[in-house]
Amino acid sequence: MLVCSKCGREYPERFRLRCDCGGTLLVRHELPPGFSDALTGHLDMRRYVGLLPVSEEHLPEPVPAITPLSKLDIGDVTTFFKLEYLQPTGSFKDRGTWVTVAKLREEGIPEVVLDSSGNAAISLAAFAGRAGITAHLFVPAHTNPGKLRLLRKLGAELHIVNGDRMTVHWDAVRFSEEKGLTYVSHWLNPYFIEGTKTVAFEAYEQLSVPDYVIAPAGSGTLFLGLWKGFSELKIMGEIDELPTFVAVQASGHESLCKRSSVKSRLAEGIAITEPPRLEEMKAVLDETGGICISVGDSEIEQALEWLWGRGFIVESTSATVLAALWKLQESGFIPSGSRVLLPLTGSGLKMVEGI
Amino acid sequence: MLVCSKCGREYPERFRLRCDCGGTLLVRHELPPGFSDALTGHLDMRRYVGLLPVSEEHLPEPVPAITPLSKLDIGDVTTFFKLEYLQPTGSFKDRGTWVTVAKLREEGIPEVVLDSSGNAAISLAAFAGRAGITAHLFVPAHTNPGKLRLLRKLGAELHIVNGDRMTVHWDAVRFSEEKGLTYVSHWLNPYFIEGTKTVAFEAYEQLSVPDYVIAPAGSGTLFLGLWKGFSELKIMGEIDELPTFVAVQASGHESLCKRSSVKSRLAEGIAITEPPRLEEMKAVLDETGGICISVGDSEIEQALEWLWGRGFIVESTSATVLAALWKLQESGFIPSGSRVLLPLTGSGLKMVEGI
């Protein structure tokens, strides 16, 4: 079923973005009695299909990968970088899109609408196109021309909007209402989080439970997915305690941390000042004793250089987690000897021709 | 041990590129009694470390991924696309580099030389840099500036050479001889093929034995790796017969097929007219009843469009295998009902800013 995070109202497990009260929804799917027994023999994301609210027959292609985890000592802590940028379209979004498209196929929905010009758009274009679902993508006019051509080649219907990010958003909403089409905002979509929660399952198999999870927290799709994955491991009796969650935000675009005056340009993937799942993110910090931390462009730039120098070809938003770790080591929040999980979210190969 | 493919002479299992007779070398490592028993529990390439000539303690980071396999019916055959472009640096080369760097570490070699401006260079720069090995990369002066910056950021020592590809090659060889440094040409290096052979192990676990393998065949590092992987499965008694191997080459750059007059510009990854492992590739075609097929730019372009439209964001060299499949279906070489493995070798995300 779907459960409202605000009023607790329950809905059947269909595609739906919000509760009637306006609250955001999460899936509460019946979990198997044990984690290990639920795993399949597949060497890709289908390994966790027994823990997802979709049936194997509707899973789209290509199937997202099980991504490598890379261990590194930084100062006196042990870090585990999860290479989420090694997914079919170059970001962790493929996990969420994959479960979403499976659900759309299950319900026979042939045409959907999304506003985004980033990794979520590329991901939806690729998976929807392959699954025979028409994806109307609303994108700002200033979007990089290379990206627009990529989206077209992947088969998306592009709607180019003059105006700021909110204008693009409202145009998409109006279009979906006028045409009676399904709006699939990943900021709201509960099935998206069902996909991202598998990052926690994999990380658990690869390193057991880390002491800290340091994750970007813009709209919260990955942050909440990680929390939900570890929470389900706890519900299944597989682990006793959740890791402490650190929410990383970008200077000038903070929603959980205090808003700074200087606006980051490098962390565009998390430049979201009013995320609809804000209260849920706050609850995760409360539950796990975590904190929010904000990073600025000079810190991000330094972290990006460091990551590329260690063979991690990521985009700048991905570097925020390392910048955050450095600050938290300095402040003493993360004690010596800790084991820390840091997802690296998006590929830097897109930047190669342009850098 | 290392065994010469030409005269059969044996050498100890150290880093070495050629036999004294000039012949190329392959590793003949003692195989475990059974394939399944040799697998480790790792969810990355370390799964196959029991079948590799390196010890676990020297394996570098990051560890290459187990890549997804994507199933698609094309006409009356079932294709399995292996997403080899989802590796840390965006190509299958990471598998070969990873085993190579493990071997270099085992032998305590601190500084190496390579000539390449493509995926092999990016891969070596990333893994060597991380492992504390200095990589001198000899690249042509006309290399894309974005790629040069990427190589520098990954920590490589760049040597920019005015002249054609052969001038670059001889400059690298001369430099390594003058300085007494190890030249690590992936065209010759037997440990590189030990890495690429794991593509066959994974594919076998994911789909069992295909009827056909259609692979790019420029220098032959992937083509021979696939053959070696399936051959070792046969030696271990895991499979009875090898798939039929199809070598795909690019118009104007053929070594196995008859040389065409029109030169392909899109398949730069396999534009190698005199591969040192030519005789070994011929032997694979003889052994498996396979053939060579050449494709041109208009066919590659059409195949690339098709792949992007199905969510496979690959570079143009990767599309050669699909162009080849289409031709072989038309000619009747690949019969109805066949199961065909097609590795997709390199990421197209590098093209996004530029396209």
UniProtKB/TrEMBL annotation, chains A, B:
<dbReference type="GO" id="GO:0003941">
    <property type="term" value="F:L-serine ammonia-lyase activity"/>
</dbReference>
<dbReference type="GO" id="GO:0009097">
    <property type="term" value="P:isoleucine biosynthetic process"/>
</dbReference>
<keyword id="KW-0663">Pyridoxal phosphate</keyword>
<dbReference type="GO" id="GO:0006567">
    <property type="term" value="P:L-threonine catabolic process"/>
</dbReference>
<protein>
    <submittedName>
        <fullName>Threonine synthase</fullName>
    </submittedName>
</protein>
<dbReference type="InterPro" id="IPR001926">
    <property type="entry name" value="TrpB-like_PALP"/>
</dbReference>
<dbReference type="GO" id="GO:0006565">
    <property type="term" value="P:L-serine catabolic process"/>
</dbReference>
<dbReference type="InterPro" id="IPR036052">
    <property type="entry name" value="TrpB-like_PALP_sf"/>
</dbReference>
<feature type="domain" description="Tryptophan synthase beta chain-like PALP">
    <location>
        <begin position="67"/>
        <end position="346"/>
    </location>
</feature>
<dbReference type="GO" id="GO:0004794">
    <property type="term" value="F:threonine deaminase activity"/>
</dbReference>
<dbReference type="Pfam" id="PF00291">
    <property type="entry name" value="PALP"/>
</dbReference>
<keyword id="KW-0456">Lyase</keyword>
<dbReference type="InterPro" id="IPR050147">
    <property type="entry name" value="Ser/Thr_Dehydratase"/>
</dbReference>
